[in-house]
Amino acid sequence: MPSIDLKTGMALFSSGFILIMDASIGLGKGKIMTVLALDAHHYLHNPGAAPSLQHVKCVAVCVADTWTGETIAELLEKVIIQIGVPLAYLKDGGTDLGKAIKLLRERGTPCLSIDDISHFVANLLKHEYQKHPLFDVFISTCGKVSKMLKQTILACLAPPKVSTKARFMNLHRLVEWASRILKHSPRGRAAKGSLLQKLRDCFDRLPECKTFINDFLLDVEPLMECQEILKNKGMNQTSFDECRPIINTIPNIYIRDGFMDWLERHLKMANTLGLHQSGMPISSDSIESLFGVAKRHGTGEIKDANRIAMRIPVLCGALTRQDAENVLRISVKEQQEWMGSSSSLIKQRRDVLKHSGCLEKISMDDARQDVELIAGSKSGQKLPANSNKTIAYGNNSDP
Asked: The domain containing residue 157 runs over which residues?
């Protein structure tokens, strides 16, 4: 695994940093809580570029059966002891994350809370459209259309897959697809056996959803335009002024006023933090991307939370030749020593399904410690004896 030089990394954030935090969905019994540090003045050094994985440092990644406001606050206190107090926290709308920040305030740690723009927009849309009379019809119809299009000559026109969890985060992609596909069906009779007739045969009730599709796009397109501006420029007076006329085109008053209120609150916060000129980061896309990448690489068929958590730190920041050399020096024995104290779904499966395996081995292995890696801390996993300090976690020495 590559080295993570905490002192060098945080030197980039000498003028202050923002902590981005989130928990993954459950994987087995484990949920992965990750905390990333981002330079508060990111847009000053990277004008016009939204923060990506190469711009963040992973300062904590821990696995637990559940995460509550209390346990998240305890984790953040450990992080603060090692790297200092952040200028602000950037998070989604999760109640546990909000409670953790509230607890930190009550314990005397000053902290501002930035609400991730994508999650806030998704909640606005959910409030207005989840109870729309055509919403359920639209969702079920898209599923039916997808099944009918697949395995046909028109398979390339199948709708994009949208997760049922946090559905409104990406619902606009599905609605945009529906709008575009319907435009390929102009008025008039289709010739028998033509591609147009084949397409219409797969529409099911999609034409009945035109009102929902049109209303949704009128509201969401200005929001998407503003998100692109704010993610690439940050929240400052210039981006605020650029978004204001766009927001005024939103027909739905609840969405229009709600988003304007979010803008005004976060511009005030940017002024408080002194980021009103360079731009305040307002998106947690980097941590969402991190979870997505981590779940795809090196996890195998079983999505083991501890195995994924161990890889998360190395996916942040820019990799160097020295990182590669450090990896080559780690032996299989040292890897096994490193992971030996962690619960493993893959090992449990192997032990149970092999010849003479037994179910009781699941509870024995599950009693092992989950991964807890905190930058500069002695807590959590024990480093292999000959690790050459390739990971700055679990070690108070300089990496």
From this structure: 118-260
Of 124, 129, 144, give the one whose Cα is nearest residue 213.
129
Indicate the helix (H) or strand (E) that contains 19: strand 17-23
Task: Verify that 17 and 47 share a domain, yes or no.
Answer: yes
Cα–Cα dist 242/254, whole Å: 21
Q: Would 266 be classed as within a structural domain?
A: no
Please return the burial class of 105, using the count of CB atoms within 10 Å of its CB with bins 0-12, 13-18 and 19+.
Answer: middle
What CATH number does residue 110 fall under?
3.30.420.10
Same domain, 59 and 29: yes
| Predicted pLDDT of residue 28 | 64
Average pLDDT, the chain: 83
Q: Which amino acid is at 143?
A: G
Separation CA 160–CA 175 (nearest Å): 10
Could you report the per-residue pLDDT of 114-160, keeping only the tens digit for each?
A: 999 999 999 999 999 999 999 999 999 999 999 999 888 999 999 99
Q: Based on the domain organization, do 233 and 142 belong to the same domain?
A: yes
Examine the domain organization and report whether 131 and 256 are in the same domain: yes
Same domain, 65 and 102: yes
Contacts of 38 (CB under 8 A, 6+ apart): 13, 17, 18, 19, 20, 51, 55, 56, 90, 281, 286
Q: How far is CA 7 from CA 80, 261, 286, in A?
A: 14, 38, 22
Same domain, 111 and 129: no
Q: What is the pLDDT of residues 163-217, one digit of tens each?
A: 777 789 889 999 999 999 999 998 889 888 899 999 999 999 999 999 999 999 9
pTM of the model: 0.82
Ranges of residues in the chain whose predicted pLDDT is under 50: 1-12, 379-399
397 lies in some domain: no
Buried b (16+ CB within 10 A) or exposed e, 59-87: bbbbbbeebebeebbebbebbbebbeebb
34 in a structural domain: yes
112 and 35 in a single domain? The answer is: yes
